[in-house]
Amino acid sequence: MSPRSPSVNEELRRRSRERILQATVELVDTRGYEATTLGDIAERAGTARGLISYYFPGKRQLLQSAVHRLMHLTLEAALEREPRTEDGRERLARAIDAILGLAVDRPTLMRTHMAGILQAEGFVRCEEQQRLAFLLRDTVERYGSEDVDTDYPLLRALLMGAVVAVLLPGAPMPWTRLRSELFARYGLDGDMGAPPDGDASGGAPPLGSAGPGGPAGRGQSK
After folding, report:
1. Given a cut of 50, is residue 22 above it in pLDDT?
2. How much is the pTM?
């Protein structure tokens, strides 16, 4: 049997890595972080336990990469769903709703992810995180930002804060209120995007009155 080509080996490694990431999301989402072992993940992914350690230095880093992959795929699907659009405001609305939707639909997974970011290991910059960052930066640019290097980190921080607020044990914020605040800040209409429950009314009115003409909604679509 002739040896496999480098390209075939690379594709096999890619598929193996993706199976590991998908298995991690599925298991942590249903069992929780502590109850999920690397052995469990390897079994679900149909791969060797040692291969996980080859790709990832630890379980916490593995989880971050897995959730970043999920966020990237979810955001990509939201931005490219039909009817497709190049309108920057609509794309930003879809991005906000996609991230809020993950907090609403997968609370265990997203709460564990956010808690991990606040651990000593901090924020992991991996392949999956870079793909997610590219989509968010592109969304900010299409929205009409004149300073993407400033506005992208701000959007990322606001989305992370909204996710934490939705999931805060004992004092959660309604996602409808957070959506309204974010939409008002960026001058987006309530019927834009695709809210988690399908209700595009935007929920509660925003606390402020920022709009497209105000300082919080200065961006315009290109």
Report:
1. yes
2. 0.85
